[in-house]
Amino acid sequence: MNNHPIRRFACTMILLALAACNDDVVDIDQLVSDGGSDSPTVARVGNELILVSDVDAELANLPPSMQHLANSPEVRRKVEELLVRRVVLAQQAVMQGLDIKPEVHAQIQRMRNDILINALKSQFFNNQPIPDEDKLRAYYEQHKADFTLPEQLHAAHILLHDEQEAKDIAAKLKADPSQFSALAARYSLDDSNKARGGDLNWFPRGIMDKAFEEAAFALKHDGDLSKPVKTDSGWHIILRKGYKPAEVQSFADARREIIHILQHQAFEDWVNKLISHADIHYAKQHHPEDIIRLPEGIRTRAGDDGQLPPS
Prior knowledge:
Elements: H1 5-20, E1 41-45, E2 48-51, H2 52-59, H3 73-95, H4 102-127, H5 133-142, E3 148-149, E4 152-160, H6 163-175, H7 180-187, E5 199-204, H8 210-218, E6 229-231, E7 234-244, E8 247-248, H9 251-277, E9 291-293, E10 299-301
Antiparallel strand pairs: 1-2, 3-8, 4-5, 4-7, 6-7, 9-10
Helix pairs in contact: 1-3, 2-3, 5-9
């Protein structure tokens, strides 16, 4: 049975998928239990254990279409072999002193920090209560403009070389508007959408060339055609296919996003306090009032309130 071609193919695909998920440098501590785990051991490499939970974690990375293979004994065995291989190689790297080379050590440290930060964030958000309804609604009312969906137009176009050619096509469309898709497929210079009859899908203002946008949004009814419009790309004939006016999301539709915003604001406030009370020494002197700039818009001012941040 092990030599069945379908089984061999499936196992090969599993290994390729797993390898693709693990191209980065891996800290060997991620592969080894601390010995206090209740998970059974499936292998020992030197003094390091590979556990059932390690195998399960690898299989969890499989795409949904392949998750049904996670309980296959043959597949699990292949994953065990892959984990053994990784630990053997990692141990060999340590034996050769590669883990203390400055550039390798720096990579390991960065990866370790990333793992710890992600764990910290997960813990914070798991423990973060959902703001009460009054606070959610107050945020919605104060930031209603942020939940306004702009007006959008659904249009198609035919892009042509010159004005005369555009006028000729416009005359054909005036006689028979139903030819638009066929004429776009035959004559349009815009290869990105000519096969779809020149369909540009939905777009708001501020996306297209100004002259194109003004002509497109000036069309009043679905099915209306513009006169030839000149842009830097050439000459366009525009067909209006649909229109959505600007609208404000309801509180119910915006509620989940507001929860996300407020919880992330709480996280940033907590991080700012941590930074403001951390034992930080810069090589270059900073002014006490300097704002520390961090990713994702996090800002703090040293000594905000003199209180230690919560644990």
